[in-house]
Amino acid sequence: MTNDLMNDNACNLMLSEGDSRPLPLVVLKLGGSLLKCTDLADRMRSLIATLRPQRILIVVGGGDAADVVRDWSNRFSLSEEMAHWLAIRSLSLTCGLVKELLPECDEVETPAAAAVVWGDQQRPVLLKLESYLRQAEVNEPSPLPHTWDVTSDSIAAWVAAQWGADQLILLKSIELPAGMDLKQAEATGLVDRHFPIIAQKVTQIRWCNLLADSVNVLIWKTHSGQLTCDCRVGTAKDTKSAKESENETLFESGVVEVDEEPNRDASFL
User: Fold this and answer.
1) Strand partners, 56
2) pLDDT per residue over 160-169, tens digit each?
3) What's the pLDDT tens digit per position in 63-115?
4) Mean pLDDT throughout 168-172?
5) What's residue 122's pLDDT?
6) What's CA 70's distance to the chain center, in Å?
7) Separation in Å, CA 251 to CA 50, 113, 216
8) Distance between CA 92 and CA 129 in Å, rounded?
9) Given its phi and psi angles, is residue 126 left (phi above 0), alpha (psi -120 to 50 degrees) or beta?
10) Which residue from 50, 95, 86 is spatially nearest to 248, judged by alpha carbons?
11) Whole-angstrom Cα distance, residue 28 to residue 101?
């Protein structure tokens, strides 16, 4: 890996002048199914507003664009290596769309480039995955498998681990069934086959159904293997009640549980 990619200090925007601690880094993985949501930009801005002043890195999923590559792979018997990089290239299309929807976000290829943006009004950044991965995997002893076992969920988790992110938030179009662990999620297709493996390298993983009327973020996995409940982060049109604030306090103690039923018709990756 190049010195530019390994330069952790370049990413460490400080909490305040004289404070040596970096602002927390949050990786948002935007599921491809959400690209069909006509008010996606408003929903993203509302969520991002609740996460500031943390550093925000957005990884965009492939959605229909990646499905085209999957069809080509089956139709023309493409090698896994070729199909992998074509699928990665398809993420450039979806990233370009999100850039159009959220022009306030800058596209970056390296941690050092992201640090420049975060240092300028703390804007969120979009990661140009093909450029980043081709550089980052050169000298990486544990690159991602180049197979269909890896989709943008695992890629986002790998990026979160490489960048030393404090948390990865999976933005989905479905609720996380109560009590579901990583392996169960993989078995039911909520995440890809490689995700339970790469997830072990991520400090904290959260889940968010961005299509919900009231957006909640669930702490799904921590280093201790913790599985807890939902934390209301709000939307632009939501106002918290006293009861909801009380529930958030309970959430921090790990005593609230999620009981929503999943939307079985949603597309997940």
Assistant:
1) 26
2) 999 999 999 9
3) 999 999 999 999 999 999 999 999 999 999 999 999 999 999 999 999 999 99
4) 98
5) 77
6) 21
7) 17, 36, 11
8) 7
9) beta
10) 50
11) 16
Question: Are the C-beta atoms of 209 and 37 separated by less than 8 Å?
Answer: no
User: Of the candidates 125, 124, 208, which has an alpha carbon nearest to the alpha carbon of residue 171?
Assistant: 208
**Amino acid of residue 201:** K
Closest C-alpha among 130, 124, 123 to residue 94: 130
Q: List the domains of the chain with CATH numbers.
A: 3-252 (3.40.1160.10)
Q: Read off the pLDDT band of 223 (50, 70, 90).
A: low
Mean of the per-residue pLDDT values for the chain?
A: 81
DSSP conformation class of 179: T
> To which residue do tokens 């139709």 refer?
75
Q: Can you give the pLDDT at residue 69?
A: 97
Nearest residue to 88 via CA among 21, 19, 159: 159
Cβ–Cβ < 8 Å for 161, 202: yes
In the chain, DSSP assigns E strands to 25-30, 55-60, 106-108, 125-127, 167-172, 204-209, 216-222, 230-232
pLDDT at residue number 215: 86
Handedness of CA 15, 18, 19, 24 (dihedral sign): positive
Residue that the structure tokens 């404090």 belong to: 166
Q: Is residue 22 reached through a cis peptide bond, with omega within 30 degrees of 0 on the bond before it?
A: no
Predicted structure pTM score: 0.79
The phi and psi torsions of 41 (rounded to 5 degrees) equal: -60, -45
Q: Provide long-range contacts, Cβ within 8 A and 24+ apart, for 106-113.
A: 109/135, 110/4, 110/5, 110/135, 111/4, 111/5, 111/7, 111/8, 111/10, 111/11, 111/163, 112/4, 112/5, 112/7, 112/10, 112/11
